[in-house]
Amino acid sequence: MKLSEIRATLKEIGVSPAKALGQNFLHDQNLARWIVDQAQISSEDYVVEIGPGLGALTRFLLEKRAHVLAIEKDPRLANFLRSRFGYERLEILNTDALQFDPRVLFAHRCVKLIGNLPYNISSPLLLKFLELPTPISLWLFTLQKEMAMRLSASPCTHDYGALTLRVQLRHRVKYLRSVPATVFFPRPDVDSAVVRLVPRDPLELPQHDDELLLKLIRIGFSQRRKQLRKMLGEYARHWNTLASCLDIDPNARAEELSLLQWIALANCIAPPPSQDVCSAPDEPFPVVDENDRIRGYASRAEVHGNNLRHRAVHILIFNQAGQVYLQQRSRSKDRHPLKWDSSAAGHVTAGENYDKTARRELKEELGVDVPLERIFRLTASSRTDNEFIWAYRGVVSGNLAPNKYEIERGVFLTPPMIDGWTSARPDDFAPGFLECWKAYRWEMHSGREQSIRLEAFSAANGAASTA
Ligand code: SAM
Q1: pLDDT tens digits for 56-105?
Q2: Would you identify the CATH topology of the domain 210-269?
Q3: Thinking of the domain 276-421, which architecture would CATH place it in?
Q4: What is the predicted pLDDT for the residue at 334?
Q5: What is the mean pLDDT of residues 424-432?
Q6: For an engineered disulfide with 39, which of 95, 123, 140, 456 has Cβ 3.0 to 4.6 Å away?
Q7: With contact defined as beta carbons under 8 Å apart, do 330 and 364 qualify?
Q8: 79 CA distance to ligand 1 centroid (A)?
Q9: What is the mean pLDDT of the chain?
Q10: Is the CB of 286 under 6 A from ligand 1?
């Protein structure tokens, strides 16, 4: 819309732009088209637009034939958009974007997030939508210029700080262009800029302890003019040796360290394990026949290398709200690294039965010990990596303490969210989990739980528990 059209429309729908809602409407249509072009939208994309306003960007997103979910807090603007655009591909949600649950987006294949953000809430919006795990593959924002510069800053600059590192740790950030205040009505007090973020490949940066790294960064930047040696306290006990290992000036301040140097610092303080510490290749597993009877023992490496039939457990942990915890397997796992999996899972080892393994895995992986009930059994097949699987369910009321050497990250999701994610992007998951989830949902839908428990009980007292 041209400036005159924006003025006329606002008058017609009775909106006088509110500063509290960051209502500055873009009237430069060439710029709006250019912004949308930077997101490389196609008809395959599911685009979430935050704060569509009068539809300056929405119009061009729809021209790209994308499916658009537009989240607008002001009901008058949401109603106007409904009357302006009658496309089936446009969903308009009249809500506060800060209240929107991004986990529902897992049900879509190619998700992109775009918006000329309301300045007053751009930081919480950014942090909310950048939080991991996320299905979003590209973020394109027009932000206050100062914020855009902080996100995209390089070391040794005024804008480089804890926010820069926190965002760049997971994303590549590109400052695309500055935008003068004059392209908006009403004109904001400050200039803007357009930035694009894409997620980093999870293996792009060295493995490290995220919690420690973010803590060091927070401490380091809490007084940015002070030298790190004075700021890092107990972490800087052998500072001169650390500094020479990292090839940094021993008098360096926080802003002088690149992201890689921060990671190296965290790794000098707490070296990550060099391999999968939780799965020794010579650990003996029972090898079983087609009826799940033990026929001998072989090492983990032999079992997997020769595709021998063996035993495993999968555990689904629910919270009080009925959401299921999914874990992303550690990058150092020998099988299916970085794939999403059941809350906890593992192999039955020599001398264990299924129930004992389930309790052990739960404690080792999630640091909890809650009652578990058997829910179903899967027969060994190529779809389960030749594992007989007993699945268990447990409910937690407190926090989990995920083992950081086994688990990259985790998230609680409602069962419909998991249904959506597994069908939109099955490749994100370990194959055993997909089988377990299919079986679990089938049990839930068919109401066969009772008979399955009976089967579980007899199996527990028969062939399946001869270990
Ligand atoms: N995209 C439009 C444009 O470029 O002309 C409008 C951008 S304007 C800077 C920000 C928009 O966000 C306004 O339409 C405002 O009503 C909306 N908004 C403000 N706070 C919001 C929130 N918490 N959730 C969703 N929309 C919000």
Answers
A1: 999 999 999 999 999 999 999 999 999 999 889 999 999 999 999 999 99
A2: Helicase, Ruva Protein; domain 3 (1.10.8)
A3: Alpha-Beta Complex (3.90)
A4: 84
A5: 95
A6: 140
A7: no
A8: 14
A9: 92
A10: no
Q: Residue 454 contacts by C-beta under 8 Å, 6 or more apart in sequence?
A: none
Q: Is the pLDDT of residue 303 over 90?
A: yes
| 3-state secondary structure labels for all residues of the chain | CCHHHHHHHHHHHCCCCCHHHCCCEECCHHHHHHHHHCCCCCCCEEEEEECCCCCCCHHHHHHCCCEEEEECCCHHHHHHHHHHCCCCCEEEECCCHHHCCHHHHHHCCEEEEEEECCHHHHHHHHHHHHCCCCCEEEEEEEEEHHHHHHHCCCCCCCCCCHHHHHHHCCEEEEEEEEECHHHEECCCCCCEEEEEEEECCCCCCCCCCHHHHHHHHHHHHHCCCCEHHHHCHHHHCCHHHHHHHHCCCCCCEHHHCCHHHHHHHHHHHCCCCCCCCCCCCCCEEEEECCCCCEEEEEEHHHHHHCCCCEEEEEEEEECCCCCEEEEEECCCCCCCCCCEECCEEEECCCCCCHHHHHHHHHHHHHCCCCCCEEEEEECCCHHHCCEEEEEEEEECCCCCCCCCCCEEEEEEECHHHHHHHHHHCHHHECHHHHHHHHHHHHHHHHCCHHHHHHHHHHHHCCHHHCC
C-beta of 92 in contact with ligand 1 (< 6 A): no
Of ligand 1's listed atoms, the one at least distance from the Cα of 32 is 4
Amino acid sitting at position 297: Y
CA atoms within 13 A on the CB side of 387: 26
| CA gap 210, 207 in Å, rounded | 9
Q: Tell me what percent of the residues of the chain surpass a pLDDT of 90.
A: 85
CA dihedral 49, 89, 132, 72 (to 10 degrees): 30
Is the CB–ligand 1 distance for residue 96 below 6 Å?
yes
Q: How far is CA 163 from CA 100, 110, 141, 178, 222, in A?
A: 23, 27, 16, 20, 12
Delimiting residues of CATH 3.40.50.150 domain(s) in the chain: 3-199
Question: Which of 24-28, 30-34, 225-229, 341-345 is predicted least confidently?
Answer: 225-229
- Cα(118) to ligand 1 centroid in Å equals 5
Distance 360 CA to ligand 1 centre (A): 50
Instruction: Say if residue 452's pLDDT is above 60.
Output: no
Domain 3-199 CATH class label: alpha beta
Closest residue to atom 20 of ligand 1, CA basis: 21
